[in-house]
Glyoxalase (Amycolatopsis methanolica 239), 123 residues
Amino acid sequence: MTEHASVRYLVDDVQAAVDFYTGHLGFTVNTSAAPAFADVVRGPLRLLLSGPASSGARATPSGLDGGGNRIHLVVPELDAEIERLRAEGVSFVGEPVTGPGGRQILLTDPAGNLVELFQPAAR
């Protein structure tokens, strides 16, 4: 059995989220109980997609929010990924940002959850 690090995203439409992650970002479906829940996998990441009818969508305690939390996907060539995804109709939050560790850009899934595409700096 493969070990995965799991992250839960609350989504409005489980099938739309599955289609987004599998169609645009290279995930595969692990299990699906749509419209309540599905999980998709990319490498060691298992992304739990919890719809309104799932137990994972229960209210978060008051005062807590996701802030800038996001999944972080490493890509070999950021500009090529941006071009490919724009051609597929995906929109981005802002423009690419360059820092000491590499370049990144943010996009959102259909429910508004953040995804970061990251190209490490050449070493």
